[in-house]
Amino acid sequence: SMPSEMLLKIFSYLDAVSLLSVGCVNKLFYDLANDNGIWLKIYSSCLRPKRTIWKMKSEQTEAVPLGCAALHDKKPGYWKKEYILKQTAAVKTRVMRLAKPLDPYTGLPFKNKEAMKVSGLSWIIVLKDNNGKEHVVEKANLSFKDTSVTILWYSTNWPCLDVVSTLKLFGVTPLLLDQSRPPNKNGPRRRSLIAEYHLANLTENSVAVGADRLVQLFSLNPGLLVGIWKEKNEIAFVMVSLHYHQLLERSILGSATVQYAPPPNKPVLDDIDPDHGLHDYSLHLEMHGRSCTYLRGTFRDLFCRKGDIANGYFRLTVVSLKDNRKHLPLTGTFGLSWETDVFKGNVKDCYVMNLTLLDEIGEPFWCFSAPVYVEVSSKTSGLYDYMGDIYTTNYADSEGKVCVKLVWLEETKEYIIVNLVLYLSTKKINNWYGTNY
Fold first, then answer.
1. Is the four-CA dihedral 15, 20, 24, 30 of positive or negative sign?
2. Of 17, 369, 382, 383, most Cβ neighbours within 10 A?
3. CA separation for the pair 330, 419 (Å, rounded)
4. Where are the chain's structural domains?
5. Helix residue spans in 258-407 (DSSP H)
6. Which residues, 6 or more positions from 32, have their beta carbon under 8 angstroms from its beta carbon?
7. What is the pTM of this model?
8. What is the tens place of the pLDDT at every residue in 357-391?
């Protein structure tokens, strides 16, 4: 029953975030909270031109008109929209500036944590059931590695697995970021769709990664791991491994319904020996189990001759079975730790693999972070240098395959990588270089 003029006067004392929140109460509040007079004052006070000692550009010195034309010639909400666009553009500029310095070993931005903090970035998952009802899970534990972040969600109120149809992974950022205080989860936020997974018939349509006495793990590309309680056949937790490459772009620059699409690669002029298919590639590889790292290594000067191209793949040999000088010992035994509100566990013989492959000019060519499992290949190694069982661990997606062969040394209780080969998709190579192999 309060007159609109009084409400408008009250709203004029609110800041931008509060105005956006109060506009969600009802249609009247929404219309009043769109008032151009209120938003023009906010726009003018928060986005004043920067002063410089020497010269000032014309767009910097242009004053925002405060007259009647700036109010009545514009549709309701015009200055609100302008203010939000300017603020979000400023945050994206700061984030992209932090993402420019690159790590010489990984070829990726090394200020990822700072960039995420500046943007106020967090991640959520949304599970949709067969009736279209959405279940949002926000509480998450983060663990950072050189080239990836692993996010673990657990809840006491998961929807029944039998009725879940899809799971969507979103990056979430505050619509208006206040640098003086932490982001408010109840404030206005925007979502950026990173990935969508179809969970219908999960146990049949995914890869079984491993199990312990309480849970079974199932994996879906890219990087999704779902833990299922053995006794109840219900969701226990969800874990996602996100590679830093394009992580910020996908978490910030996408929309709530469409994933961010990176621009196509621009091929460089290459006058290398025509007998080479690829040359001067670099690989950074991590194997970890959330809390511990089993291997972290960088391999340079990788190449592939045209004779190594077969069956739709380019073969890059990183560690050769025949060259024992390059065989790699691993620290510890494989296992992937998990936790919920009550229980904790560790699933043996599986881990998270982070792969970053750079082309000859240092551009990220193929990057992923994904859970993989280890399985026995043979009870005897057949190698003169080692006496022990042979294990294999493999990964495959649309861009390539990774094949790793390991030997378990019982005396020293360690794995040795004796063979590591990458198979790159010919289709990916042709799209990257604009060629036709």
1. positive
2. 369
3. 13
4. 111-176+187-251, 278-433
5. none
6. 4, 7, 8, 11, 23
7. 0.84
8. 999 999 999 999 999 999 998 766 566 677 788 99
